[in-house]
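Internal tracking record. Fields below are filled automatically when a chain is submitted to the structure queue. Please do not edit lines marked as system-generated. If the sequence contains nonstandard residues, flag them in the REMARKS field before resubmitting.
Queue: standard
Priority: normal
Entity type: single polypeptide chain
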Amino acid sequence: MTSGNGSLPVASNRVAVAGSGGAPLAFPWEAEARIDVRGPGGEVVIEAHAAGLRTLAGHLPVLAGDGVHDGAHLHLEDGNGLESGSVGLVPERGCEE
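SYSTEM-GENERATED OUTPUT FOLLOWS
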């Protein structure tokens, strides 16, 4: 399955990445999700249709989950989850301080 205009084909609806020393994390991914990230003029614009917004929103509770280590993150970039021409987006779990 592929998302509309040149984004990454998605083999399944979940993407697993290492949780910074912990168990692998599973990030939900909706079929046909499209997400475009731009950084014009000192702002970051995340443009997505409904499935893309739900997909991105679903990643944040995974990173906020109990037992997820500081530094756990997911790389989204042009050709890897984001639309062609997007700048990279790295949601990352920070310190609990």
